[in-house]
Amino acid sequence: MTAEIITIGDELLIGQIVDTNSAWIGKQLSLTGIKVHQISSISDDEKHILQALAEAEQRVDLVLITGGLGPTKDDITKKTLCKYFNTRLIIHEDILEKIKIFFDRRGFKMSEINVQQAALPENCTIIPNPVGTASGMWFEKNNTVFVSMPGIPHEMKRIMTDGVLPKLKKEFDLPVIIHRTVLTYGIIESELSDQLEDFEKNLPEGMKLAYLPSLERLRLRLSITGKNREKLEKLLDEQVSELKKYLGNKVFGFGDSSLQEAIGILLKKTGQTVATAESCTGGNIAHLITGVPGSSEYFKGSVVAYDNRIKQNVLNVNEQSLIKYGAVSKEVVEQMALGVQKLMKTDFAIATSGIAGPGGGTDEKPVGTTWIAVATPNGEVHAKKYVFGTQRQQNIRRASAVALNNLRKSLIVIE
Fold it and tell me: According to the model, what pLDDT value does residue 414 have?
């Protein structure tokens, strides 16, 4: 079964709202055994909507539509659907009663415009909305199923979860699609592809490997489709084990895990602690670490030493090192790591100092130049220079990820 997702709204096209609905819907459909063929975002225009529906009907078995179901005049999806499916809007008394209860429970007065939320196409199957006033609508035409849902994410998700997905599973014989995601860091996509050439050649029939790179990790997704879930699970587990043999400690996790979660697991296992001294990353590493539940067990604190006086007075960085080598240097970042390690009385410490950009670079130290250090329990400090790019936010994210991965590698060695 193939599907198309259509999101409706001028706000999506002008960038006022980011479309997160499509990504969530796509993931749920994939887990249900439905392949997404296309995703489109279109304007609040009758002609545009009708054209998109007609084209989708020719391509796929299922069309999922979000947006344009509000009570105001600019929400034209219901009327346009009536035109496409040759029907009319009628007041559904049971839906109207639910809307009245919805407003009463929240202490709001229901206006006449809200009554129109109960006006739904006569020939649709209504999919209840337990958290809002805009119902979902299920249509069938020429062997294609159309489902229209509100664009508000939490409302759409409840309609999908409670109504649409169960109905699809009940009415259609869907295949099993299973994914396994292996998370890596510290190797670029092209190099990884070369390293896994033989592995890919020997994959079982029907199994696919996808490379999904980002600044914080490179995901390897293994996918397979079939009927026997138990057999498919076993095949995937075998290939994940084989993949780990190829990659060794470049693998830091699975599924939706993160580097900060990986170091949290390692620190809890060893009963050790960490602190951070951050200049160019501005506290981002501390933010990532503390975003993990239970991080108070192993994270002691952070010093955002943006000013050189903080480096000197709080982290005990030598003034002569700052004068001779500059803040962005091996000598300074090592002293920062040791300084915060001593200050916080931790086993490990991370330190960063760099030129995030877009200005501040020189020929000797261009924008993106970053020194990252990890201090270990045995008194050693491992520092390394990196040159990232010219985009400030990307540099901060890259430096944070590298720092976390360097700590992870240190923990693996000591473990």
Answer: 63
Residues 11 and 158 grouped into a single domain: yes
**For residue 114, what pLDDT band results from cuts at 50, 70 and 90?**
confident
For 260, other C-beta atoms within 10 Å of its C-beta total 22
* Sequence-separated (6 or more) residues with CB below 8 Å from residue 358: 367, 390, 391, 392
Q: Would the pLDDT of 140 be above 90?
A: yes
Task: Report the pLDDT averaged over residues 44-57.
Answer: 96
Last residue of a domain, one of 254, 282, 311: 254
Domain-ending residue, one of 227, 254, 281: 254
217: domain CATH number is 3.30.70.2860
Count of the separate structural domains present in the chain: 3
Q: Would the pTM of this model clear 0.90, i.e. be above it?
A: no
Coil, strand or helix: which one is 120?
A: strand
Mean pLDDT of 49-53: 97
Q: Where are the beta strands (DSSP E) in 306-368?
A: 348-354
CB contact set of 244 (below 8 Å; sequence gap of 6+): 182, 251
Mean pLDDT for 330-345 is 98
Q: Burial of 122 by CB count in 10 Å (0-12 exposed, 13-18 middle, 19+ buried)?
A: exposed
| 12 to 25, 46, 130, 316: CA distances (angstroms) | 16, 16, 25, 50
Give yes or no: residues 138 and 212 share one domain.
no
Return the axis-axis angle of helices 392-414 and 259-270, rounded to nearest 10°.
30
Pair (156, 111) in one structural domain: yes
Q: Please, what is the average pLDDT of the chain?
A: 94
Which residue, 74, 68, 66, 78, is CA-closest to 26? 66
Residue 192: closest CA among 212, 216, 207, 178: 212
pLDDT at 415: 56
Determine the structural domain holding residue 245 and report its residue range.
Answer: 178-254
Instruction: Quickly state the pLDDT bin for 75 (edges 50, 70, 90).
Output: confident
Contact 396, 356 (CB under 8 A): yes
